[in-house]
Amino acid sequence: YHNGVKKVKIIFDNNKSILGNEKPIGDIFSSAIYKLFEFIKKNKIEDRVSVCLTEIFKQEGIRELQERAISKYKDAQKCNSLLEGIIEDKIVKEIKEKDLVEKIKEHFNSKIKENNIEIIPLPDEIKVLDLVDRAINYNPPFEKKDKGFKDSIAWLSILEDSKNNPDYVYILITVDNIFNNSELKKEFMDV
Questions:
Q1: Angle, to 10 degrees, between the axis of helix 149-164 and the axis of helix 128-136?
Q2: Do 177 and 141 form a contact (C-beta atoms < 8 A)?
Q3: What average pLDDT does range 51-80 have in this prediction?
Q4: Who contacts 13 (Cβ-Cβ below 8 Å, separation ≥6)?
Q5: Residue 104's Cα: distance from chain center in Å?
Q6: What is the pLDDT of residues 102-135, one digit of tens each?
Q7: N or C: which end of the chain has fewer CB within 10 A?
């Protein structure tokens, strides 16, 4: 390990961790995540490398998959009604939307447990005025066009976790350019 680094937390944003639109929803995570798990296991570094999601990225990922599942479920219902009298799909008729939503959440959580993904909790305390100040001044990860609330919560979660775990190096994997901001890098280094 580089310069005496003992432990690493690799944090995935949803845009890099959750699988793409046409993959089976049951897989949950992208192939990049599974390749990382294989690499960690192959190199026997499970005790030094943690794959993580922040709580807000986890909740967002669950919701994203639920919305995709509901969309596909509604498509199946339409097909079922179009083919009524010719073919009858009892499964589509028996499943209720709320059960499907709950099943996705349960499956997501089981994949987290199965793969030992660490969930970085929400900060114990977020000062609302600090968050409001950050938002109205467009301090990263807030952006113009009123974007950045979920990213800000995730960012504050990561900052708090890093304060509580100074023996870790943190790697955030995202395609969200806002996290490449020099102000955020400085804020992280000051922790």
A1: 130
A2: no
A3: 85
A4: 57, 154, 172, 173, 174, 175, 176, 179
A5: 14
A6: 998 999 999 999 999 999 998 877 777 777 777 7
A7: N
